[in-house]
Design goal:
Blueprint lengths: L1 E2 L4 H13 L13 E4 L2 E4 L7 E2 L1 E2 L5 H17 L6
Antiparallel strand pairs: 1-5, 2-3, 3-4
Helix pairs in contact: 1-2
Bound molecules: zinc ion.
Length: 83
């Protein structure tokens, strides 16, 4: 697990993940999509106070960058992941 606080790059990556429509998003107990912040996930639904301070581990920064590039390439090409 990757515990918050997270860097700007990781927050950006997690939010691309959430909005891509290519992956099952992180959700709260009620099934609302979560939004990544440096302090962890918050629920996107007004009035829902769910928070979560972990995400699945990205093993290394190299893997993170590789994964991000793959994701962005897939998004730009309008393809589903894995391509
Ligand atoms: Zn919620």
């Amino acid at each position: 697990m990757m515990k918050a606080p997270w860097t700007h790059d990781i927050v950006g990556f997690l939010n691309v993940w959430q909005s891509s429509g290519l992956f099952h998003p992180y959700t709260c107990d009620s099934g609302h999509d979560l939004v990544a912040t440096p302090d962890g996930w918050i629920c996107s639904k007004v009035g829902c106070s769910y928070t979560q301070d972990w995400a699945y581990e990205l093993v290394s920064m190299d893997q993170f960058e590789e994964h991000q590039n793959t994701l962005l390439t897939a998004l730009q090409a309008g393809r589903r992941y894995p391509v």
